[in-house]
Amino acid sequence: MRIKLDRTLCDGFGLCAKHAPDYFPLDDWGYAVLKGDGNISAADEDAVRRALLDCPVHAIIELKDKRAERDAG
Ligand code: SF4
């Protein structure tokens, strides 16, 4: 799973940090920062997906593999 965080959308609710603190540390103002390159290990996918689904402003976006989509037709 690969994600990106759109910090222009983030409103600082901090829910992502609650679910997956290793990936979404909060900055001094309470806004989320994406730690790492956006690649999520399989073991952490559940927590990160929960963060993604709980974000009230949909600032966490899953990046689909374009090639996989094309191959799937
Ligand atoms: S849950 Fe969404 S709005 Fe809240 S801190 Fe995380 S990214 Fe920002």
Overall description:
The protein has three helices and two strands, in the order βααβα. By secondary structure, it is of the alpha+beta class. Strands 1-2 form a two-stranded antiparallel ribbon. Iron/sulfur cluster (SF4) binds next to helix 1.
List keywords for this structure.
alpha+beta; 3 helices; binds iron/sulfur cluster; globular; 73 residues
**Count of helical stretches:** 3
Q: Mean of the pLDDT scores?
A: 94
The side-by-side strand order for the widest beta sheet comes to: 1-2
What amount of the residues lies in strands?
A: 5-15%
Q: Give the C-alpha Rg.
A: 13 Å
Give the terminus-to-terminus CA distance.
20 Å
Q: How many β-strand runs?
A: 2
The 3D shape can be described as: globular
Instruction: Give the biggest beta sheet.
Output: 2 strands, antiparallel
In terms of structural class, how would the helical and strand content be classed?
Answer: alpha+beta
Order of secondary-structure elements:
EHHEH
Helix percent reads 25-40%
Uncertain segments are none
Ligand inventory reads: iron/sulfur cluster
